[in-house]
Amino acid sequence: MVHLRLPPGFASHAVQSLQKVQLGISPLEILYTSHEHWPFRPGHTAHTHPTLSISVLDSSFNPPTLAHLALAKSPPPPYRGGSTPPPISSGSDYDARLLLLSVRNADKSTKPGDATYVQRLEMMYLLSQDLCSTVTDSAETKDGSASHSPSHASGNVAIAIIDAPTFVGKSSALLRFLQTRLASSNSTGAAAAVKDGANFLPSPKLTFLLGFDTLVRLFSPKYYPSEGDMIQMLRAFLSPSGEDCRIVCAHRTNPGVGQTSQKEFQEKTLKVAQEFIASERINLIDIGADEQTYSSSEVRAKVAAGDESWKRLLTDSIADYIIENGLYAPVGTDRVESFA
């Protein structure tokens, strides 16, 4: 087994942060940062570029799978000449990464047998450690897949909790929080930045990393007052003159759905999203032939059925955590090992 220790007091800190968010005391809580001055790059207290790019993986993490890891470590997609180039200031990678847990997601509620929010946050920490050890810069190979080399962003990740059901609400809360955090950077770093002619109060730019099922919900009129309101709100969310966010969406293959039905379903969503795809505010990427078939619901179903193949869908540390905590086992079963 791979044993990664959680930081001392992590669970109690998670409980306190969850309570603040759920009670409306705070709209957003940072639970963990890989270094003190996140989202600045490790070893820096200022930024030398007018924008600071942050990828945001917002998910239920129930549990985090290898698909989550592949999406979290994916580099920015290549710019192909859309309306405005992406604000990438660190060569070919984001400046920082954020794993975000929303305690109020549209169309998703906690069900019996699910991991608790604290357990999900603990698994997110384990995912962040896997991310720190594997995240990379990327270059396309001949077959369109990614080849990788080490990246500074491997050590620049944070975990946060938010209470907002929509991406529009999440982006607004995140931008407010980040602007305040960057503005309150210590005076030593600010003075050094001014001396070097740097912009030590960069503008944060968010790229949300999604699976295709989440993109479907994002472009579903039932979550908005009307279809017209949906387009208007999404334009404000994604427009350079609005919140200037971007979306990177992973292709998804569902082995349990026929290819024809799956293609028709995806094409329907892509048609509605075409305005934003054409302007490169939304980019579609491949995260791997295997990874794009993985899902958290498959893990939960396999564990409950006693199918040991669930372990191949996860990193070793998260698989060990599920076993040690007896997660997703049928009622009356204490530990997953009893299925072996």
**N- to C-terminal distance:** 15 Å
Rg of Cα set: 20 Å
Spans of 5+ residues with little confidence (pLDDT < 50)? 135-150, 335-340
Shape: globular
The largest pleated sheet is described as:
7 strands, mixed
Describe this structure in words.
This protein is an alpha/beta fold and 340 residues long. Helix content is 36%, strand content 16%. The protein is built from eleven helices and nine strands. Helix 1 crosses helix 3. The longest helix has 18 residues. It is globular, with a radius of gyration of 20 Å. The two termini are 15 Å apart.
Question: Which characteristics define this entry?
Answer:
single chain, 340 residues, alpha/beta, two-stranded antiparallel ribbon, globular, disordered C terminus
Could you outline the blueprint of secondary structure elements for this entry?
Elements (H helix, E strand, L loop, with lengths): L9 H13 L5 E6 L17 E9 L6 H7 L23 E7 L14 H18 L1 E5 L5 E5 L6 E6 L4 H17 L3 H9 L7 E9 H7 L8 H12 L7 E5 L8 H14 L1 H5 L3 E4 L10 H10 L10 H10 L15
Parallel strand pairs: 2-3, 2-7, 3-6, 7-8, 8-9
Antiparallel strand pairs: 1-6, 4-5
Helix pairs in contact: 1-3
